[in-house]
Amino acid sequence: PSAAGCVRGVRTKNWSSTLLYCEQLEQGRRAIEWTEQLAPLARAGETAAFGLRMNAGWAFEQFRQTTGFDLREEWPAELNRLEEQGWGCLEKDRFRLTRQGLRFADAAAEEFLRS
Fold first, then answer.
1. What are the residue boundaries of the structural domains of the chain, listed by start?
2. How far is CA 109 from the centre of its chain?
3. Which end of the chain is more exposed for a tag (fewer CB within 10 A), N or C?
4. pLDDT at position 115, please?
5. Residue 100, pLDDT above cutoff 60
6. Could you give the residue ranges of the DSSP H alpha helices within the chain?
7. Could you tell me which residues are beta bridge partners of residue 90?
8. Predicted pLDDT of residue 98
9. Beta 94-97 vs 58-59: how paired, if at all?
10. CB of 50 within 8 A of CB of 42?
11. What is the CATH number of domain 40-110?
12. pTM for the full model?
């Protein structure tokens, strides 16, 4: 129960109540409380957030090809903030989390999540 996910730009959240969750499953339904269709920029932010969990981070060109957006243009303040606090490393062709940033990847990822 209570799990959330995002597939092909649709964010979902399961029921938090174990009772409601089980009732839905017993009735042959998915136990989803709500869904939200993400706007393209929000979808790109989700992609950025989860991709930064990898050691290599995001190559700028790869991110643009994947999402249609440029990390440096859409999230400059966030990239700078992560770099200033020692969690991010802005390189010529990519942005990645530092060793410390990877320890706090969930908090770093929040910088890129928009509704």
1. 4-37, 40-110
2. 6
3. C
4. 55
5. yes
6. 18-26, 40-51, 60-67, 71-74, 76-84, 99-103, 105-110
7. 95
8. 98
9. antiparallel
10. no
11. 1.10.10.920
12. 0.77
